[in-house]
Amino acid sequence: MIRSVRELLRSKARFFLLATLAALALRLFLVWRFPGVVDDSRLYADIAKNWLQHGIYGITNSGKIVPTLSRLPGYPAFLAAIFAVFGLDNFKAVLLIQVLFDLGTCFLITDMARRLFSARAAQAAFLLAGLCPFLANYAAAALTETLEIFFTTLALDFALRGLGVGEVSTPGRLNWVGCGLSIAGAILLRPDGGILLAAIGGYLFWLLLKNWKGNLSAADSVPRFAPRKLIFAGILVAVAAVAPLIPWTLRNLHTLHRFQPLAPRYATDSDEFIMPGFNRWVKTWIVDYVSVQEIYWPVPGSEIDFSRLPNRAFDSVDQRSETSQLFAQYNEDHDMNPELDARFAALAAQRVREAPLRYYVWLPALRIADMWLRPRTELFPSDPRWWEFNDDRRWLTVSLVFGAINLLYVVMFLAGWTRSHAVFGVSLFFFFVVLRSAFLGSLENPEPRYTLECYPAVLLLASRLFHRAE
After folding, report:
1. d(CA 296, CA 304)
2. Last residue of a domain, one of 324, 354, 384
3. pLDDT tens digits for 308-354?
4. Distance (Å, rounded) from C-alpha 261 to C-alpha 125?
5. Which helix (H) or strand (E) holds 136?
6. Distance CA 25, CA 39 (A)
7. Tens digit of pLDDT for each residue in 370-421?
8. pLDDT at 160 over 60
9. Which of 320, 354, 388 is the last residue of a domain?
């Protein structure tokens, strides 16, 4: 019998106490030794302080506060609340509270494993999540990831409750409202949180098709649902997920005269040039995070080194020469003007025309693989070119160990999926991972952190390997 999470915690109190202390110790060590306050952290903090002190959701530009829509209000609101209580720019308080949210994520993953598999799998899930160095690493960074992962996990847990998964489940409307509001929390932190809405909505639609006019067979693992209940659940989730975006959309219309329900694709304000030609050219060759750091991020404003381009960036001697000239012209003033961007666009169009399969299939697949398999050491001072083995020995070791741990998690996830794909509810998590990965493959900046939102599903299915019938 599947026990409630409270019963599980009581019956395994010693295990959960020791595991929680270990998880907390790991996170506190990273907060103390490697706190992550980066440029994005300071931008979010600037918006939070202007909002808190002046009532303006904006950034400071040349001493003036300028309204912005480049970032969604979720994380600035979180920072503003903490700054109001603990003092301005108190990032230590921010990180410590994020640690609590991250521990909450561990318990939510535990609850889902208990519902889908068994109490033993739930214990394994808690240990896998609590000691996961990647979740812990971002809990110690003033970025959106920890809260985004928490709300993603909360939404998935509510979805399982709404579907009645687990003998102690109480399916009902409030679960679907909670699921939608959790998705809204994820979207208000990052616009790609909308992928979660698509995944849960798509899964409910699949269940609707399976239940429509008695399409279920006796051997099917999917339980019977009244179609109207599935439709109503989908409506509740969608309304609850979208409604919190209305004030933000109205604010953008009123203040900036722009219909913008989410943040812009490239997190730019209306007066910023988005470099469409350069961005498309980058997508004709980029596959790894190293190129994001060395080529993509520095533009505009910083020097870019032509020698850092891989050979796949050129299809001919003429293309290599043209690209070299474009780099030289950009490096004169470090500005990507419309004329220069148009030349990159023409070069990109040529490369896409000559190899469309590469652009639309192979490069996205390689970007997805890089985001999933790269050692997740981007918050450490490790050399991103770890495979050249010329980094400081300590950080090279960290890269290799993190790479091995990440690979182990991915292998366990796939193995857990093969053993549990017939379990009702598991397909939701696999569908979410596939959908999010496909979206990430379309980006020109393959950053490993973007797959961390999938880690609740990874850890959950990995815990299936420790399942034992009870």
Report:
1. 9
2. 354
3. 999 999 999 999 999 999 999 999 999 999 999 999 999 999 999 99
4. 36
5. helix 133-139
6. 27
7. 999 999 999 999 999 999 998 899 999 999 999 999 999 999 999 999 999 8
8. yes
9. 354
Q: Does a structural domain hold residue 141?
A: yes
The answer to whether 358 and 116 are in contact (CB under 8 A) is: no
C-alpha distances in Å from residue 249, one per residue of 81, 242, 397: 22, 11, 47
**Closest to 46 in 3D by CA, of 63, 30, 29, 27:** 63
Alpha-carbon Rg for the chain in angstroms:
23
3-state DSSP: the chain helix, strand, coil percent, rounded to 5?
A: 70, 0, 30
Q: Is the peptide bond before 67 cis (omega within 30 degrees of 0)?
A: no
The encoded tokens of residue 416 equal 């857990």
Residue 193 shares a structural domain with residue 94: yes
Distance CA 125, CA 203 (A): 23
**Taking 60 as the threshold, does the pLDDT of residue 72 lie above it?**
yes
Structure tokens at 48: 């939070």
3-state SS class at 288: coil
Same domain? For 195 and 234 the reply is: yes
Q: Report the alpha-carbon distance of residue 383 to residue 372 in Å, rounded.
A: 18
Of 104, 109, 108, 101, nearest to 75 (Cα)?
101
- Split into its structural domains, the chain has a count of 2
Residues 6+ apart with CB under 8 A from 276: 341, 345
Tens of pLDDT, residue by residue over 425-438, are: 999 999 999 999 99
- Say yes or no: 115 and 12 in one domain: yes
Q: Find how far residue 406's CA is from the centre of its chain.
A: 16
Amino acid at 449: R
Look up residue 215 and give its two tokens: 């399409």
Which amino acid is it at 250? L
Tell me if 37 is assigned to some domain: yes
Q: Which domain holds residue 257?
A: 5-264+396-466
Strand partners, 65: 60
Q: Residue 232 and residue 431: Cα distance in Å, rounded? A: 21
Residue 73, both tokens: 């209000």
Q: State the pLDDT confidence band at 236, using cuts at 50, 70 and 90.
A: very high
- Token pair listed for 276: 């469409």
Burial-class residue 424 by CB neighbours within 10 Å (0-12, 13-18, 19+).
middle
